[in-house]
Structures are given as C-alpha cells and as structure tokens.
C-alpha cells in the first residue's frame, strides 16, 4: 500500500531527492509513529503524514507528524537540544521524541475549529505546545509557565467556554487567501506587529471557519499547556476537551481581530 507522506520542497531540498523518493516509496518511512506535534500515535499507511526535519548546527533529525497537526516543514533548534532529542530516540533518554527538544524550543501546535457560544458559531484557534514552556533564561525549575506567561500578555483565565472572552488589543490573526498565516502580537517598541506564531506553510481552514471569521471579524484564541487538549479529530470532541481544560484551570483565552480575509 502506498504511504500517505507529505514531503515539502524545503525538506526535499535539505534531505535530497534520493532520500525523499525513498520515503515516498515507503522504503524509509516509519509506518506507525508518534506524532512530533501532539505525541499521539499515527499511521502513515492510514492517514496523511508530514515529514518534519529538525535541524541543529551539525545534526538533523527527521520526524513525522499528523498532517492535520503540522505541515511538512523544517524546524531549526539548537544543537544541544537536538542532541537531547537524538538521545531520546536512541533509547538513552525518556523516549519523548524530537518534538520534546527543550522548553524554549517547543513547537506551538494550532488547531482550528468552530465553537458554539450563545447560539452562534465562532471561529477558534486552540494553541497547545509540544513541551512545557519555561521563562526565557531559566532552566524550567518552576515548572510549566505557559499559561502564566500568556496571562501576563493579556490572555484571560477561562473558567468555561460558554461566553466570548475579552478582546486582546494589539494582537490579531492573519488570514490571507483563505489560509492561516500567523498570530501577530505588538512589536517590542510599539512598531509593526511581529509574529507570535507563524506557519511555515499557510494552513488551510474550512470554508465554514473562514465564513464565520469574515462575518464576525474576530477569532477566539484558546491556549492550554502540553497534554491538556491533545489531538481531537472532531469539533465536538475538541469542545469537550476545551470544557475539561477550563474546569481544571488549564485554559486561557481571548478574542483577536481578524487581519486579512
């Protein structure tokens, strides 16, 4: 059976045509794998799978992700963090895989979905990192501070998903030609906005999601720490996971204006 692998042009250029062709032919692909984004099992024979190449100063590691979690892309990390990932892959670490390359290099996974609030469908993005997030310059001794950092940026703790969270001024969601490009935050000196999260390749959203975003001209953005939401294949399951995270005090949210169409 042919493998359902996606190999982006950037990844192909880095690994070479011969290796890319071997992957696509099923010679070197993983079959079953743990997604480097959401860490749940995947099967390249049953679902579309992205090749994700982690590159350090001297080392490169090829990993795999559900295509619904991440597009095929190159992710640059420090050599020290990549070596730690290699140790985990070869059984010398905890087996967490290349997505767990250290708190400061955690990948932010984003899932889009429609959320029903007070009888109206709202476009939403759910952000969940692939590893605990520490403050810059620390070693993570204080644990996962992802939500605390977002609250300091203006996100609001969400006790439920039954009302629209407040608008976070200065932030926006960039949509162009119907595809999700970035989540923008204010520049450090008050100048042009900068990307808080940026897609290496624009992400597709559903027609319903785009229509709701264009109608309301804003997007709800919810964030949870690693492991709180997981990969949910349906919007009703995503909503259930959001409600559970909120009850557990593991969810923050805000509304952001829509930039683009």
The Cα radius of gyration reads 18 Å
Helix segment tally: 6
Mean pLDDT: 79
Quaternary state of this entry equals single chain
Query: Low-confidence segments, ≥5 residues, pLDDT <50?
Result: 85-105
Q: How does the helix and strand content classify structurally?
A: alpha/beta
What is the helix content?
10-25%
Count of distinct strands: 14
Tell me the β content. 25-35%
> What order do the helices and strands follow?
EHHEEEEEHEEHEEEEHEHE
Domain module tally: 2
End-to-end separation in angstroms reads 39 Å
Q: Tell me, what's the shape? A: globular
**Biggest beta sheet attributes:** 8 strands, mixed
Fold and architecture overview:
Residues 85-105 have low confidence and may be disordered. It is built from 6 helices and 14 strands. Helix 1 (9-15) packs across helix 2. With 261 residues, it is α/β, with parallel strands linked by helices. The strands form 3 sheets. Strands 7, 8, 9, 10, 11, 12, 13 and 14 form an 8-stranded mixed sheet that branches. Strands 1, 4, 5 and 6 form a 4-stranded mixed sheet that branches. A two-stranded antiparallel ribbon has the order 2-3. 22% of the residues lie in helices and 33% in strands. Residues 18-46 are annotated as: Disordered.
